[in-house]
Amino acid sequence: MTVKVVNFSTLPKNFNVDDKSFLVRKPCTAYVIAVTREKCSGCEEQEPLFEKLSNKMQSKHGNKVEFVRVHSDFSAENKEDAKRCLEAFQTVAFPTYVIYIKDHQGKTRETYRSIEPPMSEIERNIGMSVELAGWFDPKKQ
Length: 141
Known about the structure:
Layout: E1 4-7, E2 30-37, H1 41-61, E3 65-72, H2 80-88, E4 96-102, E5 108-115, H3 119-135
Parallel strand pairs: 1-3, 2-3
Antiparallel strand pairs: 2-4, 4-5
Helix pairs in contact: 1-3
């Protein structure tokens, strides 16, 4: 599996991070989200590292982890998309990484958030999030 890329401009105009159903669909899975934008040097530097981490973690955890990159457009003429993306994900800079899980009641929970962290930090938090997601397995409730 690879990183699924979602262009922020394709999301509904009223999208906000409180409605994560398009991102976080099933329980017992950690969803690792990279929030990026065009012409962002940190985003460009970390993109291949995020792909590599995705391959490594999916080999280790299988279908218990999914990777998504929500990417916003950015140009001198159009800065609005990136601004809306920052607001929607309640962050101040790109790239931001967030990990979500779904609990046994179907509520999405955030387990991690950081701006431009080292991949080793994300990797450590993926392991904890996969374990935590397993606690919410509806079959165990």
